[in-house]
Write a structure and sequence with these properties.
alpha/beta; binds 5-S-methyl-1-O-phosphono-5-thio-D-ribulose
Length: 349
């Protein structure tokens, strides 16, 4: 299985991220040496996608704590402040808080004897999160593989691919595996306005992997469904709440509603790190509103009146009742979701 370049590199205690704002034209890694630099990189979507920002956050916390180590007097207080700063970079994906929580627990579970020992534990936990993520993607791929049948048309939105995670992606994992096993199918990819994660990232990574890819405008999804080109929709998520509501890239809700109209199954791929059992429903999730200029212009080229009013919510909430099933690393979960998700995701994470 040949996936895209790694979104995150960690080697010799140094963190580098692939700057996704430059894709697909330029593949360039940026070294991240401070929490401030990581905060800016996450806000600017240089590293993006729910699992990837969780992994980057974990390494970013390690890097910042290593940097501050010589002057640290209160290790857990400093760690709490560094975690809070990084978690505040984006509000919607639960993976940031999840990763920070794991790092904090790694040092508080049993008291570390020295600062060096605490730093080693942090690094080990970040590496464990990264490695688990690879395995989780493979497990999602295996569970989702039967959904990709010969000759089918799959529509995906935004980028829940290798660039958003650590290896095969979440929504794309069944596609990578089906392709590797010689199953013929076609992937339709929404552009995903305003930042074009679909066309810049997903189309790039899946075409590179040799898949049969067709790019469409977001507004063409209904027409593709009406003409029978789409057999299923498969997307990722930034947070699935306790009742099975799905928070994902803006435009996901529209696809789910269309699927209901055209009687097309709507699947969501969700790793354990993206399930938020403590938030009751999607209405309780903070939806990130991004800069108006992302809609008025693209990479500096004006596409609207310079001062026109804009709404730019980055995510929307798809109610659980529109979700056919959730493909997790623990298996495919069907409705009713509340108990079944809790059961599927119980156990160590
Ligand atoms: O704003 P982005 O590019 O971070 O949004 C990403 C998405 O909406 C993805 O679908 C989601 O994070 C799942 S990634 C496996």
């Amino acid at each position: 299985v040949s996936a895209a370049p790694e979104a995150i590199r960690w080697s010799g205690g140094r963190l580098a991220i692939l700057d996704q704002t430059r894709l697909p034209q330029t593949v360039r890694y940026e070294t991240i040496g401070t929490a401030d630099a990581l905060f800016e990189a996450i806000r600017a979507l240089k590293v993006r996608g729910a699992p990837a920002i969780g992994i980057a956050a974990a390494y970013g916390i390690v890097v910042e704590m290593q940097r501050r180590a010589p002057a640290i007097e209160d290790f857990s207080g400093t760690l709490a402040a560094v975690c809070a700063q990084i978690v505040s970079a984006r509000p919607t994906a639960v993976n940031l808080a999840w990763a920070a929580g794991r790092l904090r627990r790694a040092v508080t579970a049993t008291a570390a004897t020295t600062t060096d020992e605490a730093l080693r534990r942090l690094a080990r936990e970040a590496e464990a999160i990264h490695e688990e993520d690879r395995q989780i993607c493979r497990a999602i791929g295996e569970h989702g593989l039967p959904l990709i049948v010969r000759g089918c048309g799959v529509l995906t939105h935004c980028n829940a691919g290798a660039l958003a995670v650590s290896e095969l992606g979440t929504a794309t994992a069944p596609l990578y595996l089906a392709h590797a096993r010689g199953v013929p199918f076609r992937v339709y990819i929404d552009e995903t306005r305003p930042l074009l994660q679909g066309s810049r990232l997903t189309a790039w990574e899946l075409e590179r992997a040799g898949m049969d890819v067709t790019l469409i405008c977001d507004s063409a999804a209904a027409a593709m469904m009406a003409e029978g080109a789409i057999d299923l929709v498969l997307v990722g998520t930034d947070r699935v709440t306790a009742n099975g509501d799905v928070v994902n890239k803006i435009g996901t809700l529209a696809l789910a509603i269309l699927c209901r109209h055209y009687d097309i199954p709507f699947y969501v791929a969700c790793p354990a790190s993206t399930f938020d059992s403590t938030t009751p429903d999607g209405a309780s999730v903070a939806i990130e509103e991004r800069d108006a200029d992302e809609v008025r212009a693209f990479r500096g080229t004006q596409a609207a009146p310079a001062h026109v009013a804009v709404r730019n919510p980055a995510f929307d909430v798809t109610p659980a009742e529109l979700v056919t099933a959730i493909v997790t690393d623990r298996g495919i979960v069907h409705p009713p979701y509340r108990d079944r998700l809790a059961q599927a995701f119980s156990g160590p994470q």
